[in-house]
Design brief:
The chain is α/β, with parallel strands linked by helices. It is built from 15 helices and 11 strands. Helix 2 packs across helix 10.
Length: 358
Amino acid sequence: MNLKKILALLLAAVMVCGMLAGCGPKETADPTAPPASQPAEPDPTKEPDPTEPAVEPVTLNIGYMNNYGSLWSVMTAKEKGYFEEEGITLELTSFDNGPNIIAAMENGSINLGYIGDGAHKLCVQGRASIIALSHVSNGDAVIGGPDVKSIEDLKGKTVAYASGTSSEIILVNTLTKAGLTMNDITAMDMDPSAVVTAMMSKGVDACAIWSPQSLTILSEVEGATKLTDNMTFADTSVSLASWIAMPNYLEGNKDVVVRFLRALFKAMDYAADDHYDEVAKWVSDLLAVDYDSVYAERGVAEWFTGKDVAAGIADGSIKAYYELQQEMMVKNEAITPEEKCPVEDYVQFDLMTEAANY
């Protein structure tokens, strides 16, 4: 069964349990109030000024990670001219993980950023707002070295992972599947860039990491075995990747964010329509890495179009994804039950819907 079918079945089950919605009182017009003034009609005889830009130019500082999933839509929007159409110039900055991107946004050096599944807990905790769903990932994996051929073999072994990221999530899920906990292994918290070296040098027995590092380990570490990936848990969980902004940035820059998302959604329409070869070329050029290794990442996710996102908001399936993600956070003790909240508190569905109107 493919990822789309599994996700559809999973969401159907989740949405049956989440049909409650609150209603607030409706405001009524004051009959004694004077009529609202109407905006002046545009002068049809006035010729547009060809030197005046359609929108105010803006430069956005964007945080990304060095993989296809982080860059597939933003590089497409850049190369296809969709950002230029919106008057947006990009300054791109690379980071190792989502929590570091959020920290950079908090200190003001980054305007918008991309995060994987693990960093979403910081959004639930109020540190960032989700402005767009990018894709559902299947790029995370737990990989055993030559002496680890099953998840049960992880007991007593040294396992590399990156705390606070999707690496930690899939590691906890994998251990749970075997009736184990983090106390049953020697967990080595390290930067994602160091995990490949640790596996190749046999400094650790196993690891939990995402693509492209997972693909590199599987191809270059002799005797490496993929023990689990996101699809292993697709009947009970979902791994999301999203674009985010600081809540205070959104307050004064809604129009800019809508312009960014409109360009991004157009790019997702193009990139998800079997243009993986072009996208891989753009990404490999930016990262200065081998094209084939980037192209191999095209299969690590369910890639959404902008129209998919808009339709998913309308039918409730996108909301259900984030609700399920929160349930898994509580189950895995990434957040406390008290921190669980309505997804509308941190997911900007209205912005996505407005931006998808193109």
